[in-house]
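Late entry, zinc ion complex.
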Amino acid sequence: MALEIRILDYGDIELESSFLVLGRDCGRTRRVPTYGFLILGGAYPVLVDTGYRDNAIMETLGMRGLQFHENMIERQLAKHGVKPRDVRYIVHTHLHIDHAGKDDHFPMTTTVVVNRRELEYSVSGLMHPQYPKPDIIHLIERLHTPQALRLEDLELSGPIELIPGVVLEAAYAHTEGSLNVHVETAEGRATICGDVIYDIQDQVVEPFRIAFADEVQVTGNHAGSKRAEKAAIKKLLNGSDFLLPVHDKPAKVHRGQVVGRLEWEVPGPVSHSVHRRAWFPA
Ligand SMILES: [Zn+2]
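Prediction complete; structure with ligand written out below:
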C-alpha cells in the first residue's frame, strides 16, 4: 500500500507580515495556518509536527493564536481514526513554538524524533523566545525516558529512512537543526518542508521585490545566512514533486518551478476526508 499524507489543521496564527517574507508589508498583520501531517499506509502512523501548545503561549512572541476546539490534536487525529497512542513516531521539522507544542499529549511509547542539532540549538539562547520552556522541558523528560526520544545527526549521516518510504534529511535552513521529511507516494515524492518556505507565492512564484531570473525571496526569520536559505529552497524545488510547508498551502513543483497549488486542503498524495482535490495553476 502506498503512503498517504493527511493534513491536520492545528489552528491559525496572526503575526507581522515581514516575519514571513523579508521586508513585506512591514507592520501589517497576516493570518496563516499551522498544519501537521499524518503519514498513513506504512507499518505505523507517523506524525510530523504538533502545532502550538495553546493560544496564550503565542502571546509570548507578540503573536495571536487562533486554536479552537476543532483544532485540538486529538480531534485532528481522530478524523483519520488515529489515537495519540497509535502514533509510533512524531517527527519535528524543528522545535519552534508552533511545531512542537503537544508532545506531552502523547505517551512515552510514542518516540519523538529530532535532529540532535535542533535540540542543542533550542537551548542555545539564540532565537530564545521561539523555544518555549514547557515544550523543551518535556523533551528533556523524554531524553531521560527509555525509547521516548530519538536523535539523529543528519548533517553527518546524510538522509535516514525512518520507515520504508519516509526519509529525513537536514534542511540547512530556518534553524540550525531543521529537517525535511520526504514521503514516497503513488504520485511522486512529497516533501514536508517545515518553515524552510513560509509563503510559496511571495517567495517562489512571484518573489517579493526580486527582479532577476529564477531567484527566490527569503523569509524574515532565519538563523543562518540568506544564501543558505535561498539554496535550501532551490534544492526543495528541484528535488520533489510536491512541497508541503507548515504555514501555506501545498505546491506541486516540477524542475525548479511551482506548477500548481492546492486549494487550501491539499494535493495529490495528500488527501482530506471531505474535500476533493482542487488544483489551480500557479
Ligand atoms: Zn512555524
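Confidence is low (pLDDT under 50) at residues 264-269, 271-278. Will revisit in the morning.
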